[in-house]
């Protein structure tokens, strides 16, 4: 307390302090954002988090260029600490950040399909959360051979250079990669207000796709660039629709699952490849949680047996466990199957843009074309300069002795070049070149050899000028370089591709209980699944005021349902996905549940069973189509299938045909009916078939409905039965009219 009072007294008597007051400056929040926050945000976006068209962020580029200038492309390895220290000249953000960048680019870390750092020592693993890298003083590194393609002709003006942070040296703004590294190297970055997450693709597939794209800009990219490829391997669940969306928009996600093998002798499962987006520790933790909570009872033990040969997670099974069924459940419940979200956000000319594969290839090709042109122009300039000097030497050939006399008789050294210029009519550069020729080379043989180069240089210059002006020849050079990359560095895919039919089996959860259920559908599309016991104990069905019953049938909890809409679409759902209900509830509103389009409604619903039957569609124009139910069987649990039936004429009725042939009663708005056998309709596998004419209609009439004859009110079937179609049918008699409710007169 005494000390504080003394300090206060000193401040009070200090003339420098007396009279000072705190000054508060008001500032608009918009000004604060503009002056303080926006520069920071732009710095993060432009100089840190988002990769550019060469596939690198600034931190990657600075590190690799430093290693290149250190001679680590063709030389031996050096300590990582040396590389980190040298990189500080370009990247002053701390040695830890630089070393982390090197680790990610290294071969041993396995984060990239095509690594750029040839590492030696412990660099950790991308698939391990706990396996840390050794300190930079213990590890060694150099550039991998493919970096020759990254720095191809960098000293021939292929890219622009800029000052480093303190203007003591120059660094490249981009690296002149001879292949689309932006698609080969996986890259992730989080900026301010935006992010980037680029998955890697196989080097050979990317180069081949680029070659085909150069030859034909309308090339089908999915035919050559099959799917993303991840350095940790695994198996990609192929979804053509999702991949097509990623390739076109640059956004979407892909599913990748682990690879495993069953050791029957020891009754254990060995997992040796896992999804790129997870770690071994995360998988083990999740499995342990499932075992602890009792959701998984088939596992006796799980451990990490990763060694120098690679990743291996071992699961000991209890006796009698089906390994396939267990893995199917683990895929659903653990990160053994995970999604990789794609966001192809790339800096193009300083502007972040989300691009599809075709757009990325187009931008890369434009950038690479400019780099090749700059290289050719640089080479052309050097050859022209050399030719210019040889032209001067050619004039000297006319009288070598005179040149010697001029030099000998010149008193001052500074006058040699001007005197040669006057004596032979050459410029300063040519005269300087002649003056620098060694005495031993002043002979006719040497000079004639130099002059012989003139004609070859003239031809080379002409060829370079033709190349510079020909887009076709520039593209041919790029294609040749890409083919060379495939030949020297191409490799097989690491991530396998599992197509729909193979992956669907593993999506099935065998733990779902199967039991009988009753299905109810109202006219407005409300769905109920009720067990027989609940149905017996329950009261009346509840409907909205304007609604009522439409369909009802018995089924099983594990069965599928096909729900047809009035927009030529069919939705496939699983009964097990719906909760058991009571009759007293409204039920699930299917248009909302299925996310139908605006104005779309449910037209019919059926249980397809094993998809062995047929389904009949009747249209207003009097036509009917008989389609095999197998045409609606999908390999995956895809919910929506477009083109379910023809849209040429409005759909009137749907009649399932699960058993043998039967008879159908068809009604028209003219009060005509015909009865025909379904054997007269040939089944079609094409869902969009317009069908065949069944009922001939007059111009102002249309087909009203079609139902099985046993469900109709027709008593005299013979009157309306026909042996062939189309037919007009017969007018309804009064006794065959549908029963009407009695009304009071």
What does this molecule look like?
This protein has 745 residues and is an alpha+beta fold. Helix content is 34%, strand content 21%. It contains 22 helices and 33 strands. The strands form ten sheets. A four-stranded mixed β-sheet has the order 14-9-8-17. A hairpin with a 3-residue loop joins strand 29 (663-668) and strand 30 (672-677).
The assigned structural class equals: alpha+beta
Cα radius of gyration in angstroms: 39 Å
Quick one: overall form?
elongated
**Biggest sheet layout:** 4 strands, mixed
Overall mean pLDDT? 88
Strand order of the largest sheet: 14-9-8-17
Helical segment tally? 22
Distance between the ends: 108 Å
Which range best describes the helical content: under 10%, 10-25%, 25-40%, 40-55%, 55-70% or over 70%?
25-40%
Indicate the proportion of strand residues.
15-25%
Would you kindly provide a brief summary of this structure?
With 745 residues, the protein is an alpha+beta fold. The protein contains 22 helices and 33 strands. The strands form ten sheets. A four-stranded mixed β-sheet has the order 14-9-8-17. Strands 10-11-13-12 form a four-stranded antiparallel β-sheet, with helices on one face.
Write the layout of secondary structure elements.
Blueprint: H1 2-13, H2 29-49, H3 58-69, E1 78-79, H4 80-87, H5 95-105, E2 117-120, E3 140-143, H6 147-150, E4 161-163, E5 170-172, H7 181-184, E6 187-190, E7 195-198, H8 203-215, H9 221-224, E8 235-237, H10 240-249, E9 251-257, E10 259-263, E11 268-273, H11 280-292, E12 299-304, E13 313-317, H12 323-333, E14 337-343, E15 345-348, E16 351-354, H13 357-397, H14 400-409, H15 416-424, H16 428-435, H17 444-468, H18 471-489, E17 496-498, H19 500-507, E18 516-522, E19 526-530, H20 532-537, E20 549-556, E21 560-565, E22 569-574, E23 588-589, H21 590-593, E24 602-606, E25 614-619, E26 623-628, E27 640-642, E28 651-657, E29 663-668, E30 672-677, E31 692-693, E32 703-708, H22 717-720, E33 730-731
Parallel strand pairs: 8-17
Antiparallel strand pairs: 1-3, 2-3, 4-5, 6-7, 8-9, 9-14, 10-11, 11-13, 12-13, 15-16, 18-19, 18-20, 19-23, 21-22, 21-24, 22-27, 25-26, 25-28, 26-31, 29-30, 29-32, 30-33
Helix pairs in contact: 3-4, 8-18, 13-16, 13-17, 13-18, 14-15, 15-16
């Amino acid at each position: 307390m005494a000390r504080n009072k003394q300090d206060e007294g000193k401040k009070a008597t200090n003339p420098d302090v007396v009279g000072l007051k705190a000054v508060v400056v008001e500032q608009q929040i918009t000004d604060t954002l503009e002056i303080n926050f926006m520069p920071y945000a732009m710095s993060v976006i432009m100089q840190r988090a988002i990769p550019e068209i060469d596939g690198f962020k600034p931190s990657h580029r600075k590190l690799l260029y430093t290693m290149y200038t250190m001679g680590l492309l063709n030389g031996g390895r050096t300590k990582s600490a040396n590389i980190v220290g040298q990189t500080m000249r370009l990247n002053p953000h701390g040695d830890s950040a630089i070393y982390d960048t090197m680790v990610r680019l290294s071969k041993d870390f396995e984060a990239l399909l095509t690594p750029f750092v040839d590492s030696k020592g412990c660099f950790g693993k991308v698939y391990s959360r706990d396996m840390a890298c050794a300190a930079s003083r213990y590890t060694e590194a150099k550039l991998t051979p493919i970096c020759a393609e990254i720095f191809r002709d960098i000293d021939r003006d292929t890219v622009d250079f800029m000052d480093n942070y303190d203007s003591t040296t120059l660094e490249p703004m981009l690296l002149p990669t001879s292949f689309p590294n932006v698609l080969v190297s996986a890259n992730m970055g989080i900026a301010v207000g935006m992010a980037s997450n680029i998955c890697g693709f196989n080097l050979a597939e990317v180069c081949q796709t680029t070659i085909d794209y150069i030859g034909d800009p309308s090339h089908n990219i999915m035919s050559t660039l099959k799917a993303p490829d991840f350095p940790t391997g695994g198996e990609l669940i192929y979804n053509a629709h999702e991949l097509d969306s990623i390739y076109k928009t640059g956004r979407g996600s892909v599913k990748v699952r682990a690879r495993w093998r069953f050791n029957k002798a020891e009754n254990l499962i060995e997992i040796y490849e896992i999804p790129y987006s997870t770690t071994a520790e995360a998988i083990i933790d999740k499995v342990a949680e499932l075992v602890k909570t009792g959701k998984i009872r088939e596992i006796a033990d799980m451990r990490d047996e990763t060694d120098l040969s690679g990743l291996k997670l071992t699961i000991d099974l209890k006796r009698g466990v089906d390994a396939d069924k267990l893995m199917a459940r683990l895929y659903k419940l653990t990160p053994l199957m995970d999604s990789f979200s794609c966001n192809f956000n790339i800096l193009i000319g300083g502007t972040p843009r989300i691009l599809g594969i075709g757009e990325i290839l187009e931008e890369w090709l434009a950038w690479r074309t400019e780099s090749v042109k700059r290289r050719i122009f640089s080479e052309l300039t050097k050859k022209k300069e050399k030719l210019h000097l040889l032209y001067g030497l050619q004039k000297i050939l006319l009288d070598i002795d005179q040149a010697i006399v001029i030099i000998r008789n010149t008193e001052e050294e500074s006058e040699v070049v001007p005197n040669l210029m006057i004596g032979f009519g050459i410029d300063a550069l040519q005269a300087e070149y002649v003056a620098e020729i060694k005495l031993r080379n002043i002979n006719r043989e040497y000079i004639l050899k130099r002059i012989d180069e003139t004609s070859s240089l003239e031809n080379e210059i002409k060829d370079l000028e033709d190349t510079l002006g020909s887009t076709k020849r520039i593209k041919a050079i790029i294609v040749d370089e890409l083919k060379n990359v495939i030949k020297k560095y191409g490799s097989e895919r690491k991530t396998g591709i599992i197509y729909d039919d193979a992956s669907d089996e593993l999506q099935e959860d065998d733990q779902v209980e199967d039991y009988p259920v009753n299905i109810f559908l109202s006219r407005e599309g409300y769905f109920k699944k009720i067990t027989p016991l609940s149905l017996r104990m329950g009261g009346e069905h509840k409907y909205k005021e304007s609604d009522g019953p439409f369909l009802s049938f018995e089924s099983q909890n594990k069965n599928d349902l096909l729900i047809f809409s009035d927009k030529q679409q069919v939705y496939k759902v699983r009964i097990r996905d719906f909760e058991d209900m009571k009759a007293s509830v409204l039920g699930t509103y299917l248009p909302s549940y299925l996310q139908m389009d605006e104005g779309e409604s449910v037209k019919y619903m059926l249980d397809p069973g094993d998809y062995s039957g047929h389904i009949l569609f009747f249209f207003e124009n009097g036509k009917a189509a008989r389609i095999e139910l197998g045409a609606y069987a999908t390999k995956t649990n895809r919910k929506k299938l477009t083109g379910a039936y023809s849209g040429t004429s409005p759909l009137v009725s749907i009649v399932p045909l699960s058993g043998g042939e039967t008879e159908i009663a068809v009604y028209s708005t003219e009060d005509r009916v015909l009865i025909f056998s379904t054997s007269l309709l040939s089944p079609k596998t094409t869902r969009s078939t317009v069908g065949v004419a069944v009922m001939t209609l007059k111009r102002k009439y249309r087909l009203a409905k079609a139902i099985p004859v046993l469900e109709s009110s027709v008593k005299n079937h013979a009157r309306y039965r026909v042996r062939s179609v189309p037919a007009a049918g017969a007018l309804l008699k009064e006794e065959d009219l549908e029963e009407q409710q009695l009304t009071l007169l």
